[in-house]
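Sequence in, structure out.
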Amino acid sequence: MVLFGTLLSWYLCFLIVFILPLDVSTTVYKQCILDNKRHPTPVTPARHTNQTETGSSLHPTVSVLEVCEEPWSYIPDGILPVFWRVVYWTSQFLTWLLLPFMQSYARSGAFSTAGKNKTALIENAIYYGTYLLIFVSLLIYVAAHPKQLTWTKLQTIGITAANTWGLFLLVLLLGYGLVEIPRSYWLSSCPGYLLTKTYFKAAKMATEKAAAEENLADVMEEVAAVHESVRYNHHLRKCVDTILTKCPTEYQENMGRDVESSHGDQNVLPTKRSLVSLHKRVIFAVQRHNQTRVQWSILIDQAFHLEDVAKSLNSTAHHFINSFSSAQQHSWIRRFIYTPTVEWYWECVFRRCFYRLLAVLLCVLSAAVVWSECTFFSTHPVLSLFAVFIQMAEKQYNYICIEMACFVSILFLCVCVYSTVFRIRVFNYYYLVPHHQTDAYSLQFSAMLFCRLTPPLCLNFLGLIHMDSAISHQDRIQTSYTSIMGSMHLLSFISDGFYIYYPMLILLLCFATFYNLGSRCLNLVGFHQYITDDDLTSDLVDEGKELIKRERRKRQKTEDAENRRWAWGERYGGQGATGRTRAGYTKLKNNQNSPVTEIKRSGIMVTWRDREAEEQQTSLLQDVSGDEGLQNKR
């Protein structure tokens, strides 16, 4: 149910990106027909008779209708309004009613469906009460004016309230994304910057991973105490067994061995409420532990790859060097297409140019959006760049150009907003983690944000191209989407004030993002952010570098052990032979006449008997010195 609600919300939001341009082109075609009916084109008909030139020039001028070419994507009347009603009200039902309830249901520690529903209703009582208070306030404002209230006006009040809240959040996220996305691609073209930032992330993630492991151990101690005190004939035993199923396997085995050797009569019996609270904390602790473990593994692989890129930059053979054989995936793509030579040219040559070119293109689009957001209220002259492009294409009835311009513009706005949603993190309660480690609460929270941000984003775009009469104040046919939104003039202080002047705040937010004011403020209050000219950042980078070195030694020893087992299995045909061939695996030369077995790995020849003990002693000394150096650094 969680996955279905999230996918449905995301699908409805991304569907608007493809349908709204068709709505715009259809509206342009309808406007052409209306203009021809109002102002027919004057045409002088020619007459083929045997009259003189003087007589033929006296024919009167008649008005005829100019033929408007129908767009290839024309949607008949009556379809789009029904479609927008279904999409809009479904998304609003999900974001304001169903998804908040499902969030509380997913985080509840109750052991039954009825208990989870009760917890969700109680937690959302204040949530729903706040929205009801806002709606009642707007209702009182409208009722105070001498206008008759209808069901349509009530719908408009609700839609306006929802869009106002969405626009407030939209401008904040858009102001961040318009600067951060082009800058991130520009900085990603520099491997040195990426490697330094990865070291910084590794130091922070190591702290979070240690805290998550400590928290999990503390919670598991409480679970063990409850498991020991509640016997199998107790009525709360079923609840304890439910909690045990959420614990990691190794902890379950330890608890099973401990309870056999204990009597369990010295602990106080828990209550049902305490078990519900413990169940909730167990779910959170296990999820947090799994998330940090996966994120740590991803950071380690990323750091190893960036270090390999740094080493390969100086390669004269134009051959990408992987530190570990396990990193070389022997698929047909790597064997025939993405070879080490191709990988070197991409990572060391073309990637930098491609990312910088993409960053410049995104920067131009961001500048166009900022300029248009600050000037879209001006209709004479037209200053919004998006409105200029659409009107130029509209004069030539180039519907394909109109649809492509709308699609690219909406897609760029969605990327700026949605990517910010993916990046933000609200402590440990909301953030998206890759490799299927995002919890249900965060997934549903992202779906809620998408449903709340998409309608005001579309209205804002229609305002940028001057196709929203509530903002442009032009007498023209409205799109089917704006007709569903209702007349914003019912709340004039919002349509004439907030919707026009609040988007100008994007300019200030862009400057704040460009100078990292938000990151600096978070850094001052204790939430460490990557700032290049900060001393604490340098310390964390050095700590992360030492952590990566330690992990590299660990992985190198594991790789060597696997290679030795594979090599001995190949030599003696023992059970260790796996029958697999891996590039970079140690290969033994079966030389029966030589007393020394030679091992060839990564082009370096070493002797087994002479250097095995020396390598083990050296690796142990490196681990000890590295650990001592890291402790002194801390």
